[in-house]
Structures are given as structure tokens and as C-alpha cells.
Design a protein that fits this description.
heterodimer; A: 155 residues; alpha/beta; Mannitol-specific EII, Chain A; 6-stranded mixed beta sheet; 4 helices; globular; B: 115 residues; mainly alpha; Helix Hairpins; 5 helices
Chain lengths: 155, 115
């Protein structure tokens, strides 16, 4: 399964307002779920952040968790209008956030495979300075598709 | 304590247990997410605190099921328990109060909200 097929336009926010990490995570979760389900997911994601930031460096963060509130892999993407503090491992601010939520039962461990794929793709986007390029969610998906194809050719 | 709050604590406990399982997965570490022992201990303390917030019988059932199956809660989909994949009796599907368990495997059943 390719990453682009898991993305949907209405869950790609390219003008996300920077702010506290908690608030930004909440904004992205609300693009996926509402109400008590969203509250549960936010709580779990913040517990995950307490274990160590999911800011992987180079301006990228990938908050992630499994939750009973979802029945399939759900992804939201946010690009902040200005880089924001995320306590990333390289201490640098973050501007691209991939948020991923997986169901508890996950045949073939698609969750960890997708998580690994996102890390790879996001690193290429940072290295080639592509993060700020897309102007619309459609362009963002096209870019992800392209990076993913290039990576496949390379491997 | 209201049943809504109890349910929220139970679901969070379950999500945290899944988190604890994942961080020990070699695949997870390979991706590059490293979790220090100190932080893991802190999460285990949170887990213990959550367990204490549940009614004693529910906490006992949860722990027993977790010990047996690793995942104590199973979602219900299309009338099936997603833990043992057995069709659930119709009368169970209309039950709305209290902790409902699968008559076949005993897992705590969870109905996802439709959105």
C-alpha cells in the first residue's frame, strides 16, 4: 500500500497555525475524529510524547499511536505557517507534522510499516527542501507520490 | 464516578497498553523511535494509576484478560467480536449498560461510534 493512497485532501492542512505542541496535535486529531474519540486519541498521543518527542529532526514530527477509537489507519498532515517548538531530537523547530493513528488490531502490522515509510519520505522531503513547495493538498499528495516512487526505484 | 468517565479510563488504559507493546517491538526501534527506561517507568506508573480509577471488578477482569490475550478489549464490527471473530448473539448487541464481554472469548467488547 502506498502512502499517497492513505492521504485525503481534507486532512492535509497546509496553513496550520503554530502554537503549543498540545494544541497543534489536537487540531490535527480533530481533522480525523470529533468528541470523546478525539479526546481519547489526544490523551494517548500526548502520553506518547511524554515518552520522548516524536520530532525526528530536520523540521519534521510524526506523532503516532494506536487507539480503540479508529478502525483503520488514519493520517492527518499539517504544515505550520511558521516553524514551531516540538522538543525535536535535533532541538530544531518543526514545520511538517504527520499524525498517524492505527487501530489496535492491525493485520500485517501495517501501522509500523507505514510509520517507517513516513519517516523515510519525510526525511527525503527535508533533505531536498521540498516541504514548503506544495501549495495545495493535491500538490502535496502528488509530491508524496513522487518521493515514494523515487524511493522505490532506489531500493 | 460516571460510567462515561470509567469508560474513558478503560479505553485510555487499553491504548496505553498498546503503546507499551509497540515501544518494545524491534520494528519500532528500527524505525528510529527510542524510548528510555525512565520514561517507560513513568508510563507504567500512569497505567497503575488508571487501573486504580476503575471499579475493582472491572480492573481485575481487564488484567486477567490482558494476561491471557495481550489485548483485553475487542471492537465489535458487523455483529462480530473482533477478538475471536465469533458472531455475537443478537440480544447482546442491544444491551447498552455496563461492561459487556464476549460470551465466547470473554474479552471486553467495544462498539465504535459511527461518524
Amino acid at each position: 500500500m502506498n502512502l499517497a493512497s492513505l492521504l485525503s485532501k481534507d486532512r492535509i492542512i497546509l496553513s496550520l497555525k503554530p502554537g503549543k505542541k498540545e494544541k497543534v496535535i489536537e487540531d490535527l486529531v480533530y481533522a480525523i475524529k470529533k468528541g470523546t474519540d478525539a479526546e481519547l486519541i489526544v490523551s494517548t498521543l500526548l502520553k506518547r510524547e511524554e515518552l520522548g518527542s516524536t520530532g525526528i529532526g530536520k523540521g519534521i514530527a510524526i506523532p503516532h499511536c494506536r487507539s480503540l477509537a479508529v478502525d483503520k489507519l488514519e493520517i492527518a498532515v499539517g504544515r505550520t505557517t511558521k516553524p514551531m517548538k516540538f522538543n525535536a531530537i535535533d532541538k530544531k523547530p518543526v514545520s511538517l507534522i504527520f499524525l498517524i493513528i492505527a487501530p489496535p488490531q492491525d493485520p500485517g502490522n501495517q501501522y509500523l510499516i507505514t510509520l517507517g515509510k513516513i519517516v523515510q519520505i519525510a526525511k527525503v522531503m527535508a533533505k531536498k527542501k521540498l516541504i514548503s513547495k506544495p501549495n495545495t493538498p493535491d500538490e502535496f499528495i502528488t509530491l508524496i507520490n513522487q518521493v515514494e516512487k523515487d524511493l522505490k526505484k532506489r531500493n | 464516578m460516571s460510567s462515561g468517565i470509567v469508560e474513558m479510563h478503560l479505553k485510555l488504559l487499553f491504548d496505553l497498553d498498546n503503546l507499551l507493546n509497540d515501544i518494545d517491538e524491534p520494528k519500532y526501534k528500527k524505525i528510529g523511535f527510542k524510548v528510555e527506561q525512565e520514561e517507560k517507568q513513568s508510563l507504567l506508573r500512569t497505567r497503575k494509576a488508571l487501573l486504580k480509577k476503575l471499579p475493582r471488578d472491572m480492573a481485575d477482569v481487564y488484567e486477567r484478560l490482558k494476561e491471557r490475550y495481550q489485548r483485553a478489549i475487542a471492537p465489535v464490527d458487523n455483529g462480530f467480536c473482533f477478538g475471536c471473530f465469533q458472531k455475537l448473539p443478537t440480544e447482546l448487541l442491544t444491551q447498552t449498560k455496563g461492561m459487556i464481554t464476549c460470551p465466547n472469548c470473554g474479552r471486553i467488547l467495544y462498539w465504535r461510534k459511527k461518524q
